[in-house]
Amino acid sequence: MKLVVQVKLLPTPEQASALEATLRACNRAATYASQVAFAQDLKDRNGLQKEVYADLKATFGLSAQPTVRVVKKVVDAYTTLKANLRAGNLGSPTSRRHRKAVSTPIVFRPEAAQPFDDRCLSWQHDARTISIWTVDGRMRGIRFACSPDQLKTLVAHRRGESDLVRRGGKWFLVATCDIPDPEKYEPVGWIGVDRGIVNLATTSDGTNHQGRRLGRYRRWQARKRAELQAKQTRSATRRLARRAQKERRHATHVNHEISKEIVSVAQRTGRGIAVEELGGIRERVRLRGDQRGTLSSWPFHQLGQHLAYKARRAGVPFLEVDAAYTSQRCPRCGHTERANRPTRDHFCCRRCGLAGPADVVAGVNVRDRARSAWVFVTMPVPLPA
After folding, report:
1. 3-class DSSP assignment, residue 286
2. Is 131 helix (H, G, I), strand (E, B) or coil?
3. How far apart are CA 71 and CA 69, in angstroms?
4. Across-strand partners of 116?
């Protein structure tokens, strides 16, 4: 599996100036290459490189290998755009966003991330320094900081490109690491996880990870955003962007904590993890206007991603099961009815009288469906007649 390790660079003022000049030169070159690719419909790497290689080196002061990386960056951007258009992520062909995407070339921000390969960037792990190509020449001895676990992962598993990123005035390197998947064990049982808005995650064991603190934090941030938006100044716009990043980091941290705890319990007890398949839920449900913001900011997809990759890294079996009627079905008698859940927090079966917390009952139903699904997943393929 592929993971990314982010390390913080600690450059001197002279080194930081060279890194900034390099980032801006590479992105100016990428914007120029994008305009050529759009005008001449050159979306393949070889054709675009033949067309712009000499100009990028002569005009923007790039060396040979950084020029190749810039061309690949442009081609990858158009490949991603094409995939988004095909998937409908930019709306219908008649929408304004779709028409703008197909009618104008891609433009790269002055400080957008720039990939470097091993010819442009080398790591000195013992000294915790890097050597990187810049427009001012090879810059050696740039220190970086990371945890011991991150350093161990870099030494053992780093492969491919590393992206130079500037965020909030700080410099980072994001390295790709190819970690071999551990062998999954045969689970002795399953932990069903029900994801929700009030309770972010509730397991079939009865463990409840509440989202009240995150909800209060989001509402407080929403009030602050409204106050800043009312000012309509450039300073307020910058502060809005910083607040959005801070809120996103906070939600990501909460999801990391929840997923880490669930995976550790599953690994310790020899069980697998099962979650509901919630893809497309925003298109399937109709909500009041005051509820749409809550649903749109619900980080259920990210929590599912964290659970999936942490389980995969730990060798824990992971399954997604059908989410239909998990909160209305009785796990004891199988009776399914909307009246089984009279309130959001309580479940009471109309047939057999089983009662309990609604989210825990949903987690038990997810667990039971995972047991049935695992039989089909691990079933041997029948031999042809």
Report:
1. coil
2. strand
3. 5
4. 162
